[in-house]
Design brief:
2 copies of one chain form a homodimer. Chain A is of the alpha/beta class. Chain A contains 13 helices and 14 strands. Chain A is 34% helix and 24% strand. In chain A, strand 1 and strand 2 form a beta hairpin. In chain A, helix 3 packs across helix 9, helix 9 crosses helix 13 and helix 11 packs antiparallel against helix 13.
Chain lengths: 472, 472
C-alpha cells in the first residue's frame, strides 16, 4: 500500500502539506471504509477559491473562438482546432498529451436560402439541418403544430408539399424546452419524407428572436428518401403563420449542402498522472468541434476552457492526486458523439477504470445543482461534496441529471458519471446559431464552473472509494 | 364665417355635440385671440381614450410587414407597398387618396460577404452600406477608433489597405448614441477612399449583439473614387479587434451591389378634408419604404400604422376638423428623403398652408416628450397640449426635438413642425437590420402613439391660431 503514499511530484515548501497527506492517508488505510480526508477537502477549498479568480478558462475560450473560429468537424478549421488543443494542453504542462483518430463522413453547408413565392414574395431566414441533402424545391407548405400531428397525417397526403412543423419552444433553466421540441429536428424530416413531402421546414429549436436559425443533426431512417430540411428563424416562422392565415403559401427552399467522403479528426487527450493509482481515471470532457455558423463559444469552447482550467489548477498543486485526471477534447460531438463513441471503443477494456466521468457541454451559465450516477456509492464523498458545492451555490439534486453527451457512450458501457445542472435560460438563444460567439460568455459564471469542476475532479481523484464503474 | 360652423359629415345622435361645437366656435370668433375650445379638448380626450384601445395601427403594421415584407425603394416590393397604401387608405374611407411620383436612381444589394484570410481564416458577418459600389477586395485592415482618427491619417497612408473604423455606439433613450457614430457610415467611406483605401469596414452603428449588421446610406464626395463599404456585426467587430492584437489581419470583402438606372415610386397621400379651411393642412408623415433585410416593422411600418390609425379616428368623428389632415406615406426616405424632397418641391407654393407637420419615424417605443418649432406660437394650444399629453405620460420639452426626417425638406422651406420624443432604447437593436420584424413591435406603446398623434393632429386642426409656418 505504499503507493498510496506516493506524493507524485513535489515542490519546495510543501513538506507540511505532504506530511499531513501521508498522515490522513494512513488513517484512511487503517479504517478500511472509504472516506474523505480533511486534507483533500482543504485542498478542494483552495481550488474553489482559486477557481473563482481563474482567467485561464476565459483566455482559452477567447483563444479557440478567435484564432480558430467556427470549426465544423472534418473541416480545415477543425484540423486547426486539433492543433490548437495539442499546443495548449502541452503549454499547460499536463503530464501526457496525445491524440486518437476519429473517422467519419464529412457533411458541409455551402449555401442556403428560402423565399415565399407569389404575391407576398419575400426572403426567409433558414438554415439547413445537419445531415440534410442539398436540393431546391418549390412547393406549398403544410403546417403541423407538432411532429405528432405530422405523424398523424394520412400516408401520401404530403405528396409534392413541404411540411412545416411549427412547435414553439419555451424558455427554461434546464432542458425542458428542448426536450419538448427536439424531435422536430431529429425525426421530423424523416416522418415528412415518409408522408411524401419533398421538403421540410421547422420552427427553429431556439428562443432567440433575432434572424438566426438553429442547425443541428437530423437523420433519415433506413430506406427513407432524404429531403432538403431546414430550420426557420423565429420571426420567419411567425411570418409563415401569418401568411398561412391569408391563404396558401408556396415556398422555394434552396440548400447547397450534403455528405461527402470520409475524413479523420482527433480526440485530443491530456492527462495528469495519478500518484497512487495512475490507471484509474477521472474524466473531464468537452467537445472541440462546433457548428459552422457561430464560433462555438458556449457550445463548446466553454467546456474546453472550463475542463482544461480546472485540470490545470490540479496539475499545479504540489502533489499529484491519487488517481489520474484525463481532460478529453472530443471530436465531432455535433454530428452524433462520434469522437466519444470512438473513445468508448478504444478504451472499452478500461471502463471500470474510468472511475467517474463528467462533461461540460451546457454553455457558460452558472451551475446550480450536482449529482452522480449512483447514490448508493460514495457516501462520505457526497457529504463532502454537499459542503464544498454549497459554497458555490450548487445544491445536490438526488435523482437528477445524467451523463453529458460525450459521456453517454462510456456510461453505456458501465462508467459512472457525474453531472452539473447549469443555468441554460439563455443557452437556446445561442445554441447552434451564428450568435454563439465569445461576447456571450459570462466570465463570472465560467469562474464558478472552473471552481466546481476542479473541486469535484480533485475530490473524486482523492476518494478511496468507488462510484460504481464496472464493465457492463 | 359660416364655414366655421360647417359640421362636415355628421352621424345620428350627435346633435348635442354639434350644438356645443357651434356654441364654442362662436365664442372663439368673438374673442379674436386664438384659443382652444373646451369642446375640441373634450374631443381630443375621447381620441386619446379610443387610441389607447386602438388595434388598427397594429393591424396595418402587421399587414404591411407580412403581405409586402421588405420594400427597398425602387424594388418590385416597393411597388407592391404603394398599391398596399393606396388600397388601405381607400378602405379606411379618407376623403381623398392619391399618389405623386418620385423618381430616383435604383440601388440594390444582391450578395455580400467577408472573411478573414490566413491562419485564422473565418467568415465575418457584414452588410453593404447603401450606396456602396460592388467589388471584391483583399487587403490588410487598418483600425481607427473614429472617423476623426481616420481623417488624421497621412495622405496615401491607406494605399492598398482596407480602413476599419471601430467606434462603439452607446445605448440611449434618444439619438445621442447614433449622433456620435453616424459619421462613420455617412462620411467614413469617402474619407478612407481619399486616403487611398481600397475598401471600408466599420463597426456597425447599432446596439445588437446578434450577428446582424446595420445598413444605411453612405455617399462619396464629388471626384472621390467609390470603394466597397460595409458594416461589420458587433461580434465580428470585436473579433477583428482581438485578431488585430495577435497580428496583422487580411480580409476579403466581396460585395455584389450597386446603383442602377432611374426608377419611379410614389408618395401616397390621404386627406381628411377640413370643414373650415380645407386648404390648410396638418401633415402626419411616415415612410413607406424600408431597407431590404428586415420587414421594416419599426422603420417605418410603425409610422405608417400610427399616422393612418390616428387620422382614421379623426375621420370617424361626427364632424370634420376645421383644417385638413394629410397622411403622407413618403417614398424612399432611406436613400435620402427622396420622396419628402419631391413633396416639398411639388407643394412649395403651399408651405405656409402646411400649418404643422409631424412624422412618426423613431420606431415603436413609447412617447415621453413633445415640442414644436416655435414656442412663440400657439400659447393656448401649448397649455392645452400639456394637459392632454400629460395624461399619456408625455411631457413638454421646450427647446428639444426637431422635424422628423421627412418633414425636414418642408421645414427648410418654412413649415412649422411638431415633434415627439420616443423611447429609442431598443431602436438601434433593430434599425436597418434583418431583425426589424413585426414581433419587435410593442402593441401598448403603439396605442399610446396613436392616441398622442390623434390628439395633437386634431387639436392643431381645430386651433384658430398659427404655428408660424411661412414661406422662407
Amino acid at each position: 500500500m505504499t503507493s498510496r503514499h506516493m506524493p507524485g511530484r513535489s515542490r519546495p515548501g510543501t513538506a507540511i502539506l505532504l506530511a499531513a497527506a501521508i498522515l490522513f492517508a494512513g488513517v484512511a488505510a487503517e479504517s478500511k471504509a472509504a472516506k474523505v480526508s480533511a486534507e483533500s477537502e482543504s485542498t478542494a477549498r483552495q481550488l474553489i477559491e482559486q477557481g473563482l479568480k481563474d482567467d485561464l478558462a476565459m483566455n482559452l475560450i477567447e483563444s479557440l473562438t478567435t484564432e480558430v473560429g467556427p470549426r465544423l468537424a472534418g473541416s480545415e478549421a477543425d484540423a486547426r482546432a486539433v492543433q490548437w488543443a495539442v499546443r495548449k494542453y502541452r503549454e499547460l504542462g499536463f503530464d501526457k498529451v496525445w491524440t486518437e483518430p476519429v473517422t467519419f463522413r464529412n457533411w458541409e453547408r455551402r449555401s442556403e436560402g428560402a423565399e415565399v413565392l407569389g404575391e407576398h414574395r419575400q426572403k426567409l431566414v433558414v438554415t439547413a439541418l445537419g445531415g440534410s441533402p442539398g436540393g431546391t424545391v418549390e412547393a406549398e407548405i403544410v403546417r403541423f403544430g407538432s411532429v405528432d400531428e405530422l405523424r398523424a397525417a394520412p400516408a401520401g397526403s404530403l405528396s409534392g408539399k413541404i411540411a412545416f412543423v411549427d412547435t414553439v419552444m419555451g424558455r427554461y433553466k434546464d432542458m425542458t424546452g428542448y426536450n419538448g421540441v427536439g424531435s422536430a429536428r431529429s425525426q421530423g424530416p424523416s416522418v415528412a419524407s415518409q408522408k411524401g413531402a419533398v421538403g421540410y421546414l421547422m420552427r427553429t429549436v431556439g428562443t432567440n428572436y433575432s434572424r438566426v436559425a438553429n442547425t443541428g443533426m437530423t437523420s433519415f431512417g433506413e430506406g427513407v428518401q432524404p429531403i432538403p430540411a431546414a430550420a426557420v428563424a423565429l420571426p420567419d416562422a411567425d411570418q409563415l403563420d401569418r401568411l398561412l392565415k391569408k391563404g396558401p403559401v408556396r415556398v422555394r427552399l434552396a440548400l447547397d449542402c450534403g455528405w461527402g467522403g470520409e475524413v479523420t479528426s482527433y480526440n485530443v487527450i491530456a492527462e495528469i498522472t495519478g500518484s497512487k493509482t495512475p490507471r484509474e481515471w477521472i474524466l473531464l470532457g468537452g467537445h472541440l468541434d462546433s457548428w459552422d455558423m457561430g464560433t462555438g463559444a458556449v457550445d463548446d469552447a466553454s467546456g474546453i476552457g472550463i475542463t482544461a482550467a480546472a485540470a490545470k489548477m490540479i496539475a499545479s498543486l504540489p502533489v499529484r492526486p491519487k488517481r489520474s485526471i484525463r481532460v478529453v477534447a472530443f471530436a465531432n460531438e455535433e454530428r452524433g458523439l462520434i469522437g466519444a463513441r470512438q473513445y468508448a471503443v478504444a478504451h472499452a477494456a478500461d471502463v471500470a477504470k474510468h472511475v467517474l466521468a463528467l462533461e461540460s457541454d451546457s454553455g457558460s451559465g452558472r451551475l446550480y445543482a450536482f449529482n452522480y450516477s449512483s447514490a448508493a456509492e460514495g457516501g462520505p464523498f457526497l457529504e463532502s461534496m454537499k459542503n464544498l458545492m454549497g459554497t458555490l451555490g450548487i445544491e445536490h439534486a438526488g435523482g437528477a441529471g445524467g451523463p453529458g453527451p460525450d459521456v453517454v457512450p462510456m456510461a453505456g458501457k458501465g462508467a459512472a458519471w457525474a453531472w452539473f445542472g447549469q443555468d441554460m435560460t439563455r443557452y437556446f438563444d445561442l445554441h447552434h446559431t451564428a450568435d454563439d460567439t465569445f461576447d456571450k460568455v459570462d466570465r463570472q459564471a465560467i469562474r464558478q464552473n472552473v471552481a466546481a469542476f476542479a473541486a469535484l475532479a480533485y475530490m473524486a481523484a482523492q476518494y478511496d472509494g468507488s462510484f460504481g464503474s464496472a464493465k457492463k
